[in-house]
Amino acid sequence: MVEFLKDLQTYSFLQYAFLAGVLSSISCGIIGSYVTVRRITYIAGAIAHCTLGGMGIFRFLQKEYAFPVTPLQGAVVASLLAALTIALVKRYGSQREDTVLSAIWSIGMAIGILFISKTGGYNEDLMSYLFGDILMVSRADLMLIGLLDIIIVGIVLIFYNQLIAVCFDEEFAKISGVKVEFFELLLLLMIALTVVLLVQVVGIVMVVAMLTLPAAAAGHIVKRLWHMMVVAILLCLLSTTGGLALSYQPDFPAGATIVIFAGLVYFFVIGFKKLKNAA
Q: C-alpha distances in angstroms, 265 versus 94, 224, 261?
């Protein structure tokens, strides 16, 4: 821990990683709360795994044809397309929703693996995308993460009441004149953007854990949604910072350590609450 704090003041890559954890925690806590109360973690998982397709394609274009793009930008495109596809299927499709989500999940990953296999540095890139590499965050990635953060926070502040209505009581929201389909789409798009933020931090495989664990823990501490968001942000920040610090000196995978830390925080909250109720 002492070495981490010392190097944090010296090395820019570590400062970028720390800032990436802080910025991603904001959207993670807010959108994770919506995902938890709406019980749509399976949708978040499908969107997360689909991002591999966009990352693989953009990485291929970047390396093989020198296109001025980054894998993170590809993740944005893929996640938004996945969110739009899910919204259209939910509204107009006659197929089973779980079947469509499985198709999006598997096809997105297959496309990503296909393009990554044709790009130099295959194994390194694939591991980085699947399990995250927060220590490789660049200044450009950091700017994109900050921009997505501003968009998400701005939308939530403007449409807070409508999103609450859609999450807790869809029928009442319709009767009250809320455009449920529009706000469902908006929520899916925000989930997609939050997934992109977290992919760089913990990787595709563990995105769902970071979206749900801090928010679920916050739900055991407070009851009101905006309180839940604030606590979830703090728990996300604790997990990302604590996991990054613990992984640094022994050179553990940062993404996995962050998720383990978040899991320990979750179980600690549950255990503390049970002991408190028993007393």
A: 41, 20, 6
Enter the pTM of the model.
Answer: 0.92
User: pLDDT (tens digit, 9 = 90+) per residue, 150-192?
Assistant: 999 999 999 999 999 999 888 888 888 889 999 999 999 999 9
- Pairwise CA distance, residues 167 & 44, whole Å: 15
Q: Are 192 and 82 in contact (CB under 8 A)?
A: yes
Q: What is the mean pLDDT of residues 192-198?
A: 91
From the list 27, 47, 278, the residue with the least C-alpha distance to 149 is 27
Q: Which domains are present in the chain?
A: 2-270 (1.10.3470.10)
List the one residue out of 215, 222, 217, 260 whose CA is nearest residue 239.
260
CA distance 102 to 105: 5
Which two three-digit tokens encode residue 158? 């403007």
Could you tell me if 79 and 195 are in contact, meaning their C-beta atoms sit under 8 angstroms apart? yes
Q: Which DSSP symbol is given to 159?
A: S
Buried b (16+ CB within 10 A) or exposed e, 137-153: beeebbebbbebbeebe
> How many CB atoms are located within 10 Å of the residue 166 CB?
24
Q: Which amino acid is at 145?
A: I
| DSSP character string of 52-74 | HHHHHHHHHHHHHH--S--HHHH
Give the pair of three-digit tokens for residue 23: 């910025």
Cα separation, 137 vs 18, whole angstroms: 10
CB half-sphere exposure, 259, CA atoms < 13 A: 22
What is the DSSP secondary structure assignment for residue 118, as one 8-state letter?
A: T
Look up residue 217 and give its amino acid: A
The amino acid at 24:
S
- The Cα 2–Cα 245 span in angstroms is 9
The CA R_g of the chain, rounded to the nearest whole Å, is 19
